[in-house]
Design a protein that fits this description.
By secondary structure, the chain is mostly beta strands. It is about 0% helix and about 55% strand.
Amino acid sequence: MAMLDYSEITERKYIVFNGEPWEIITSHVFRKQQRKPVNAVKMKNLITGKVTEQSFHVSEKVEEAEIDKIDAKYLYVNRGEFWFCDPTDPSNRFQISAEILGNRGKFLKPNTVIKVLKFGDTTIGIDMPIKVELKVTEAHEAVKGNTAQGATKVVKLETGAEINVPMFIKEGEIIKVNTETGEYTERASAGF
């Protein structure tokens, strides 16, 4: 197990703190007047999702968490359980709960290969692209006079998710969606 000095605890690092895995969200090393440097971090518990702030001093070391990233192919969702399989062995199936996936689960297309994050034997999350391309399956036509600057409408995507998009988006188009915020980012191409 690698040990990190206080100054090596930076954004996107995984650490073990109080026996649990945490992801560092922000990190800022500074000096308080004539005292020794301190690293003030904001970190997220990868099991509970709780975000907290913590200060690490010069003399402190922390253990780097060993997070395994395993390829997994998304199959389907059933009653809040998302089912995946090993891409090389479809008979090796496992499920991940909706709580672990969070809002990103609604942007998963069947047969998409993602990375599953594991801490020991515990599944703690997924690593998927920030932007994904999805087809618009339902979109109402823009109403004349309702196309002012910045007007939006709700459309349904091929995964069943509903998001706000600009009025010019039509059914059948492929759009890019930010999986972290759930927002429309741009038009990818025209479908039909």
